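Collaborator request log, item 7. Partner lab (contact: R.S.) asked for a structural prediction of Isocitrate dehydrogenase [NADP] to inform their binding assays.
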Amino acid sequence: MNKVAVAKGDGIGPEIMEAVLKIFNAANVPLEYEYVDMGKWVFDKGYSNGMTPAAQQTIESLGILFKGPMETPKGKGVKSVNVTARKTWNTYANKRVFQTLHGVDTVFSKAGIPIDITVVRENIEDTYGGIEHMLTHDVALSRRFITQPGSMQVIKYAFEMAKKKGTRRITCGHKANIMKLTDGLFLQTFYDVAKDYPELKADDIIVDDLCMKLVTRPDQFDVVVLTNLQGDIVSDLCAGLVGGLGFAPSANIGDHISIFEAVHGTAPDIMGKNIANPTALLLSGLALLRHIGLMESAATIENALLYTLEQGVHTGDFGDKAVQSLNTTEFSEAIIANFGKVPENNPKPMLENQPITPTVFKLDKNPMLENSENINETIIGVDMFIESNEQPMVIAEKCLQHTFGLFKLVTISNRGTQVWPTGSMYTNLVNTYACRFESVGEVSVTQTDIIELYRHLAQDFKICSTELLNVWDGKKAYSLAAGQ
Ligand code: NAD
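Returned to partner:
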């Protein structure tokens, strides 16, 4: 029998996990559960990543984790165990399905507008790297990594999933008009992958326009793929379209290990009361069953759930207030009592179980993801981020004293807006400037040349950060300042 790791989680986690596993057991789902120690209480025991070494070992050997929501202790400098788990095991694709559920009233269900949107969110990179530094007391910097191989993994997954699902349309949401290199790379990768799927209509949309269209015409979208932060926001928006977080499941898919959990958190305001809605965790569990090929059990349980919702049965967080709500246990028992019933709307077909291909095998080194394009690379300069509260002209004069010979000062910007050699007195300043030095004639320079420049500038300024200016196949691999 298949075995999966189960972490009950914090807050309402144990209550809703118990309800879901009760439903699984009643349906004779052929699964065994190995409970692992993860969550706030594990942090409190002194494990700084929120899980015990034994839990990590079990999850890495079983390959599937079914988890309840977990709390991140506040103000202790520890990182979220939820994010750590997704990143450590490279679950690069976060798939969240949002479908109209009959019995869960929304403005769209009342208007007869059907919703069936799958959001695929990149799950490892972006600002979720959490790589942040205070450059000065006034200025914080977050590094936003978007990589070609990382984008490729999640976008390929999205296209493959869309093809299997028989989707009409796959859409890339982005902000490449502003973040030309990071979101531009994600978008380019999307269209590179799209060439291998001519049968799918692939298009893109700027993320703000996407939000507006999702709340006006959600039925126009099928599969939407986004970078991490934008995907997080857009998927909560989609949860709102179908009735809220109580109905939002989530699957974190990796090549070896995958994690299934609800989108919502630990709901500390209702914990211990046995009133939480287990639907989101149940839907996440059904995604788990389908992921490992248990199609029949998934369809039986989902049909019973949909039938139950159609009958107006509900927990306290949704449904008709005139109809008495059920508690978590009663709600799960109502679903069990409806096994074998088929809903009037969107009944799930009884697909055959599929053989499972094991995804976990022992790795002897960390996989290196690399795009092996052969390109001509040169460094032609450097951006020096300096701390100063002086005016741009004064900074330029000091910089120019150090730029004899190889380098010339090209531009000085403040929060991305050029303030030297030209600019406006109306541009507000903060105490971090980016001073861009390029080589005279844009010839190739070495890192030693840059260290020499650094040594000189450090006599006048505190240098908070540096970035090399790369040119690849004659193309600048860096952005220009606004107004440059
Ligand atoms: P939350 O999702 O826990 O709660 C938001 C609101 O939704 C609350 O009013 C809550 O009662 C309600 N709610 C959530 N799930 C519900 C359910 N199943 N049934 C009925 N009502 C439900 O968000 P929060 O309050 O911002 O976060 C609480 C904690 O959860 C924080 O520590 C946060 O870090 C953590 N969190 C964990 C995860 C995860 O484990 N993946 C995700 C989000 C938040």
